[in-house]
Amino acid sequence: MISVTEALQIVLSTAQNFGVEELPFIKSVGRILKEELRADRDFPPFNRVSMDGIAIDYASFKKGQRSFAIEGIQAAGSVQLTLKNEQHCIEVMTGAMLPNQTNTVIRYEDLILENGVATLSVDTITKGQNIHAKGKDRKKNDVLINENTKISAAEIGVLATVGKSVVKVAKQPKVLIISTGDELVAVDEMPMDHQIRRSNVFSLVSLLERIQISSDIAHLTDDRLILKKKIEIYLQEYDVLLFSGAVSKGKFDFLPEILNELGVEKLFHKVAQRPGKPFFYGTKEDCTVFGFPGNPISTFVNCRLYFYSWYYKSVGLQSDDETAILTEKISFKPNLTYFLQVKLSYRYGHLTATPIIGNGSGDLASLVNADGFIFLPEDQTVFEKGGAYKVIRYR
Prior knowledge:
The chain is an alpha/beta fold. About 20% of the residues lie in helices and about 30% in strands. The relative contact order is 0.13.
C-alpha cells in the first residue's frame, strides 16, 4: 500500500498528450487554449472617446474660450471627422474616434447646449480628459492570452475582439465509465429488496462534464467471462477507462485479476487513504485505467483528486492548491490520509471548513450537505481547530 503523495506522483507521471483540435471560438468555453493569442492591432485601435459630449482643442480653452460653436457630430462607428476651426467643437459619442485637431472631451453634464453652441458650466478641465488613448491597453503583437489558459467568458470576448473565429484547444480524451455488479439496476427501474439503482456512474459523468469531457457509460454484470471479453474491447477503443467497483477483496471482485490477464500494467493497487483505499491504477499502451472502489464517496473523492489531477497535467493546465481553516477539532487515529467532507464558507476573508459527519463511504446522500473534502495528512492523529489544510472542492 502506497501513500497518497506517491499515488499522485505515479498518476501525474503517466499523463498523456491527446493532441490539439480546432473549434469555433464560441464553443471553446472550459477548454484549454493551445496557442498564444496576440493583439492583431493596438487596443484601443484609435483614440477613443470615453464620454458623450464635445471634443475641443484644449489650446482654445487655455486662451479663455468657454463657448464653442458645434461643427458636427462624431458618432461611434463613423469615419473620423476633422475640426475645421480651432474655436469650434464637434459633438462626440462614447466609443467614437476622436476627431482630428481635437485633444480633449468635455462631457454633456458639464455643458449647456443652446442654439448650436456648447458653453462650459465648469471652470476646470484637463487636457486629454475623457479620451482612451490608442494602444493604451495593449500594443499590436502584445500577448493577450497565454497558451494553456482555461477559456472562460473573459477569453471569449478577447478572441472575438481579435477576430479569432476558430481556436486551437487541447483535444479531450475518449472516456468510458463502467459500473459493475449484479446488485445495480437502471435509474428508471424499481429495485428489488436486494438491489440498488446505479448512481456512481452518473456522478462520474457529471464530474467529467464539469471539465468539458463527454463520456460513454457501460454496465457489466459479475460474470468473469463477460467482464474479460468486454474490457478487452474497451482497452482498444478508449483512452481512459473509469471503473466503479470490483477492485476490492470480494469473491466477485474480478477486475484486478482480469486487467492483469489483459496486459494492463498495475502501477498500484491500494492507497493509504480513507475513503477509497482499494483504488487500482494501471496502463496498457495508450489506455489509462482508473479502478475506483464501489462505495459512492470513495468513487467521488478518487475521481476528483486523481482523475482531475491526471487530466490537468495531460492538457497542460496548472491547478492551484487551496487551503481552508478547520472550524472544529478532529481526531483520526488510523495511519491513513483522511478525506473529510466539509462545508466551505468565508469568515473574515478566510476560507473555512466545517466537518460534515456522514455514515461512511457508502453514505451517498451526505455529499449533498458538503462542498468538498479537506485533506488531513496521515502523519497526524489530532487536527486542531484553526489548522489550515488543503481542500478539494466539488462545488
